[in-house]
Design goal:
With about 160 residues, the chain is α+β, with helices and mostly antiparallel strands. The chain contains three helices and seven strands, in the order αβββββββαα.
Amino acid sequence: MNWLPKSPKARRRLWVVAAVAPVLALAVGLSLYAMRDSVTFFFSPSEATAETAPVGRVVRLGGLVEAGSVVRGTNGEVAFAITDNAATTRIVYQGDLPDLFREGQGVVTQGAFLPDRSFRATQVLAKHDENYMPREVADRLKAKGEWRPGGESPTAGAADL
């Protein structure tokens, strides 16, 4: 009982596929292996544990800049804390901060954790506060009285009267 096809043309195709498949698998495997260090994972402060974000591994950490946490050093070093309202992480950054960086604003930092679980950032990206909400959702929020265009509370306008 022979498992090879009887047609010479079909046998030739089978041998070509049998020769090309391992070469292609090896190329894909080597490509994925080479790219493993270029992948940067994103975490929030509550997700960044010692197991998920070990010391020295380059990751992105995002959250809101905690109010009153920004401390500027004399040598251009800035220390601040970011939070996701469940956990807080101390960030140390050397360099110029983006123009949109401020307390209460969302930021994404890229860097690595130090042994004391503080985060040494090499890059800080400030998120803009533009609102990409569909018009229907915004209309419903306005109808319910929950619309806060500038981060103000829904009763702020009533208190001014």
